[in-house]
Amino acid sequence: MLKQGLQQKLLQKLSPLQIQTIKLLELPTLELEQRIKKELEENPVLDEVSDSEDIDDGSARSFSLSEYSSDDQIPSYKLFTSNQGKDIKPEYNTFSVRESFHQSLVTQLGYSQMDARSKAIAKFIIGSLDDDGYLRRDLDALSDDISFRVGIETNPDELEAILKKIQDFEPVGIGARDLQECLLLQIRARERTPQVVLAESILDDHFSEFTKKHYQKILSRLSISEGQLREAIEEIVHLNPRPGGQIDDSYAEQAQQVVPDFVLEFKDGELIMTMPRFSVPELKVNKRYADLLMTSAGGDRAGKEAATFVKQKLDSAKWFIEAIRQRHNTLNNTMNAIIDFQREFFIEGDETKLRPMVLKNIAEKTNLDISTISRVVNCKYIQTHFGIYPLKYFFSEGLMTDAGEEVSTREIKNILASSIDVEDKKKPLTDEELVTVLHEKGYRVARRTVAKYREQLNIPIARLRKEL
The domain 398-465 is classified under which CATH number: 1.10.10.60, 3.90.45.10, 3.90.78.10, 3.40.50.300? Predict the structure, then answer.
């Protein structure tokens, strides 16, 4: 028996303007500049406002697109965008981003003496390294991938030989299969002092005892004094367990620059936020094309096709200009809400003044969706009088103190790290003892929370923090 019924569905369809705005919201300043330049190249209807033009005078309204039919009308005053004012555009401040170890390794590969085949294999191996610089792929599986994806038949023995050459690159320790190999690569690159030779012996032959801090076994098996062991351990603890994630100061800086999207100044007791005037051009719709649309309407077939083309480009131009405008307003409103929420921190720069803040808090203050706030925060930076910060830095969960006050998890982590810094290294604090320390300071934290924060801070358990 057939049953008939009506089912009502609510489908939300984004307009071209909404799509444009969403895409532009996520872009940091440098990428926005490139996006605008690309749009100017591809859409002949878009023009830059010249330095001699004043977009606030009548020339900005010398025509109106309201004269032709459109399903998504926008007033003509919105067909111009300027986030910059009329003064001369100053150079913007930038700060450097260190070159990633992947990029650096590929650069070093270009200077190596390997043949083309070996370089192709080496490049694939470099791309397979984890963010911390380790190769955690099995060589058999890696050789299969290279055969399938690069078209080069290879084997684990050849991969091993090429990997050894990559391990000679900087930073030392890159391309290791595990922590032991990573530390051995670094210690073997050091000057052969007695302490270094002993440290290599410990890492090579007694690594398990070393990681478990079974120092008495090492002393007995190597027949050395506590002083000699202490000096060898001092060499080991200065090695880098994450060579890919912590590139040292000798690294060349990447040409790419990060531009702060906001500048916050503290003047006469007031916080003043501005969105710097970058090299983002001011945009307008080209009047000549609007006139062409008017004169082409009602003509022959070719004229109508031209009119259709121009109308499409005009629609695209007006949506892009309005999306730029909406992006500016949304970023401005969101940043002001963050500053208002974290006012004490922005005045003093004291990390303990950071209030617990999640995306929902700012969404409620701005009447925007959480997804919109997330896009605004992504890859954006603010320059303050005490440093440059990514916007994501200001967001964290919160906990309650015994006094009923909400504090940031970042504050808890700082206190946890400080407590561990001043502990007796011969008898380091266990997680249970750290809970007690935090309780004494008024912070109600569970043991599992302490363990989680300790791991996030890359602090080992008490047994591994023990020193002689």
Answer: 1.10.10.60
pLDDT digits (tens, 9 = 90+) for 142-184: 888 888 878 889 999 999 999 999 999 988 899 999 999 999 9
Phi/psi class of residue 95: alpha, beta or left (left: φ > 0; alpha: ψ in -120 to 50)?
A: beta
Q: What is Dmax (Cα atoms) for the chain? A: 100
SS3 30: helix
DSSP structural state of residue 87: S
β 381-384/262-267 pair status: parallel
Rg of the chain over Cα atoms, rounded to whole angstroms, equals: 30
Q: What are the CA-CA distances from residue 2 to residues 9, 284, 437 (Å)?
A: 21, 59, 71
Tokens standing for residue 293 = 């649309």
Q: What does the pLDDT look like over 293-347, one tens digit per residue?
A: 656 555 667 667 767 777 787 888 888 888 888 888 999 999 999 999 999 989 9
pTM assigned to the model: 0.50
The answer to whether residues 374 and 339 touch, using CB atoms and an 8 Å cutoff, is no
Q: Which residues pair with 281 in a beta bridge?
A: none
Q: Other CB atoms closer than 10 Å to residue 158's CB: what's the count?
A: 17
Distance CA 350, CA 261 (A): 22
Check whether 245 has a pLDDT greater than 70.
Answer: no
If one counts every other C-beta atom within 10 angstroms of the C-beta of residue 332, the result is 16
DSSP state string for 159-187: HHHHHHHHTTSSSTTTT-SSHHHHHHHHH
Q: 47: which strand partners?
A: 284
Both tokens of residue 76? Answer: 């003509």
Most confident of the following: 194-208, 391-405, 436-450: 194-208
Can you read off the two tokens belonging to residue 452?
């989680």
Residue 381: CB atoms within 10 A of its CB come to 20
- Contact indicator for 324, 345 with CB cutoff of 8 Å: no
Instruction: Tell me the CA distances in angstroms from 37 to 23, 32, 40, 48, 282, one per residue in order.
Output: 15, 9, 5, 10, 11
Handedness of CA 133, 135, 136, 142 (dihedral sign): positive
